[in-house]
Amino acid sequence: MLSINGPNENRVMTVIVSGELTREDYARLLPELEKILEKFESLRFFIRLRDFEGFEAGAVWEDLKFDVKHSDQYGRSAIVGSNRWEKWATQIANLFFSAEMKFFPEEDREQGWVWVNS
Questions:
Q1: Domain at 80, CATH number
Q2: Which residues contact 34 (CB under 8 A, 6 or more apart)?
Q3: 2-58: per-residue pLDDT in tens?
C-alpha cells in the first residue's frame, strides 16, 4: 500500500509504503502525484517503509516509467526502513538518479526528516 501527504513548506512529500506494492497501488497514487508535480519545479521525498515486502512485477514497471518521466523534478530523498536489503536497494537506486538518496534506520527517522528538509 502507498499513501502520500504533502508537500510541506520545504516541498517535502511524505510517502508511507507497506506490504507488497501492486500495479493498483500505483494506478491510485500516480495521478495524484502527477497533479502535485505539475505545481512544483521539484519535490523532495521522505519515504517510510513499514513492513515493506517488495513490488509485484507490474508495480515495478509503473514505478520505473513514472520515475524516468519525472526524475528531473526529484530532489533529495530520505528513505526510512528497518531491513538491510532496504538500505542496499537505496544505495543501488542512488546510482541511477541524480537526486541524492539517503537511507536512515527506523530509529534515526528524525534525522532523516531533518536532513530531507534542510
A1: 3.40.50.10600
A2: none
A3: 899 999 999 999 999 999 988 888 889 889 998 999 999 899 999 999 988 877 877
Determine the Cα–Cα distance for residues 91 and 88; give it in Å rounded to an integer. Answer: 5
SS3 of residue 98 by DSSP? coil
**What number of other Cβ atoms are within 10 A of residue 92's Cβ?**
10
Which of 19, 13, 24, 17 shows the shortest CA–CA distance to 2?
17
Query: Which residue in this structure is represented by grid cell 530509529?
Result: 107
Supply the pTM of this predicted model.
0.85
Q: Which domain holds residue 55?
A: 2-117
Distance separating alpha carbons of residues 113 and 1, to the nearest angstrom = 21
